[in-house]
Amino acid sequence: MDAFNILIANLGIGFGVAFTLQNLLYCFIGCLLGTLIGVLPGIGPIATIAMLLPATYALPPVAALIMLAGIYYGAQYGGSTTAILVNLPGESSSVVTMLDGYQMARKGRAGAALSVAALGSFIAGCFGTLILAAFAAPLAELAFKFGPAEYFSLMVLGLIGAVVLASGSLIKAIGMIILGLLLGLVGTDVNTGVSRFAFGIPELSDGIGFISVAMGVFGFAEIIANVDMKEARETFTNKVSGLLLSWADFKNTIGAIIRGTGIGSLLGILPGGGALLAAFAAYTIEKKLEKNPPIPYGQGNIRGVAGPEAANNAGAQTSFIPLLTLGIPPNAVMALMVGAMTIHNIQPGPQVMTSNPQLFWGMIASMWIGNLMLVILNLPLIGMWVQLLKVPYRILYPAILMFCCIGVFSVNNNSFDVLITVLFGVLGIVFLRFGCEAAPLLLGFILGPMMEENLRRAMLLSRGDPTVFLTRPLSATMLAMALAMVVIISLPAISKKRKETFVEE
Amino acid sequence: MKIKNYQDFYAGLMFIIFGGLAAWLSTSYSMGTGARMGPGYFPFWLGIILAALGAITLVKAVGVSDGKEHRISLKPLVVFIAMMAFSLLAGLIGASPNASLAIGTIAGCVLSFFIGMRSMGLILGAVTVFGLMLKSLGLVVCVTLLVIIASLASHEMRKKEVIASIIVLVGMSVGIFVYGLKLQMPVWPDMQELGRQFVPAAKK
């Protein structure tokens, strides 16, 4: 019971912080802006966060992080709305929602699909927040036992996990990670003061800005790719009615929501897990469980929307756990969060909880508030998002571009960052053409300096003996797990199955 | 031997080039020993691993063709290389880093416009102009230029819509960023700054 009381006390601190008028307001603005941008077709959470990050610079750290969390949930939820109404996923995790959600919209049940998505997300969000609060303290405790060798191995495991669970070619994805790690090393080496890969350019001595990388590869590249596509989207925007879920629908979906929440919470904690895998897994389970569905899956079954939406939101929530307790971002969105925290001079990791409990618990409490706000915000405002979806892309993209440009410029108030972003925009198009995923690149980019630092320290402590990674049990276990993942996924039978799962579900 | 997967083939090639370049550049920094790693140690080995992964990808992409042609466009890569090459060239003849990069990106955008990547050239060109001129021309002019140039990329552009967009976006950007968030950026053109930008000597 003691642990429970501590948990309640901690959440009390958190809600005390989050329930100030100012922080509630920032949470609200974050959710609103996140949904506003996230609802735009073709813009996923990564691009949304990168775009809106500059808006939080001027805020105090707690308010900034609360607003960012709000932006993240808003973007997630906005993406689902677009997937249901336009059949155009803003992010990979919405692909699953799209399968049945869009079909429901075609059959005039857009309202039910949207509300079940909101309900599922809310229930999952509440549960995910609780899990986060409960697991944060013990995990952070564990993290204090980690030495540099363990941290290095953990990062290897995290990076490998991130690509194994993603779709596409494994070798290419690992290549993108390493390219990201290398890009992350540009600038002054903290140990020796030597400037690396900077070609004597003073602007590069602090490294390449992570906003430039994220905005170029995710923002600009996606805009360019979308402009070239013909506008042939079919929007079901006139038929959004009946937002209140019927009792029959509720009874039908509550099981799916609970299962989705469980799967999502579990998979979100895993390194590299998070929203996409959770959504896929939840969908597969629903499909297997319902033997004789009244409406076949893929043709508008409401449980095919409820399960994945719940899983995706629970995963989004629990993927904060590795970030907040270990300081390791499990996916590209969390990597951006690391960047955001560093800007506010917060080094993510186990020490945040003890040194800055106000910030830590305030952020967790505001996650729950953010989820509540999304429900309150989205159901009445759905008409407004629908109107936004009717605006043709040719009018939207110059506006998006403008926000990106001002955002990049305002990071350091110089044109150099904007030009670097242009370079990364071209590189993003190159990656698209060559079938190279950009998310692992961003993850590697953020982890590059951390990884080198821990490798150096571990090797220094062991006096240059590389076996230290294998003789320390925790480190060895993590490396073995990473190796096992690669081996399992490379087995011919499984790699074939993996391809099928990601192509057709 | 034929290439059976062009995507993988070129991705592999790209990894080999980037990895090789990183490893080669790293050799100019001190390597140190395993216990005391120098600044060159970690990037050198990363570069080697990247090149090796690239080689594996490349080898796997060559083999018996399935008869289908999967050629892909190399134009974006050409543009990227052009941007780097022009920047490097400008840097070698003594331009400042900022100016070199500006020359490189502009050259790349113009190039992509002429080799059939019109929308990429226009969109990134619009961004480049915005970034370069914001300090001297101010937000109002720059947003206007950005919207006009970027809109040209779409085949479905309509004049009235562009004009309406400009009015709305200029108002929004000034309202949100200058008055709302109080970001430091000029609203109107500053002729002195403009002069300084093109005649670097005037800086002194």
Question: What secondary-structure arrangement, pairings included, does this model have?
Answer:
The complex is a heterodimer of chains A (about 500) and B (about 200).
Chain A: H1 2-18, H2 21-38, H3 45-52, H4 61-86, H5 94-106, H6 110-144, H7 148-164, H8 170-184, E1 187-188, E2 195-196, H9 210-228, H10 247-269, H11 275-289, H12 303-318, H13 320-326, H14 332-343, H15 351-355, H16 357-390, H17 393-412, H18 415-433, H19 439-461, H20 468-471, H21 473-490, H22 492-503
Antiparallel strand pairs in A: 1-2
Chain B: E1 2-3, H1 6-26, H2 41-61, E2 62-63, H3 75-92, H4 97-114, H5 118-151, H6 159-180, H7 191-198
Helix pairs in contact in B: 1-2, 3-4, 4-5, 5-6, 5-7
What report would you give on this structure?
The complex is a heterodimer of chains A (505) and B (204). Chain A has a two-stranded antiparallel sheet with strand order 1-2. Chain A has helices spanning 2-18, 21-38, 45-52, 61-86, 94-106, 110-144, 148-164, 170-184, 210-228, 247-269, 275-289, 303-318, 320-326, 332-343, 351-355, 357-390, 393-412, 415-433, 439-461, 468-471, 473-490, 492-503, and strands spanning 187-188, 195-196. The mean pLDDT of chain A is 80. Chain A has one domain (2-503). Helices cover 74% and strands 1% of the residues of chain A. Chain A has 22 helices and two strands. Chain B has three domains: 2-63; 73-116; 132-204, no CATH class. Chain B contains seven helices and two strands. In chain B, helix 4 (97-114) packs across helix 5 (118-151) and helix 5 packs across helix 6 (159-180). Chain B is extended and about 55 Å long. The interface between A and B is large, with 77 and 82 residues.
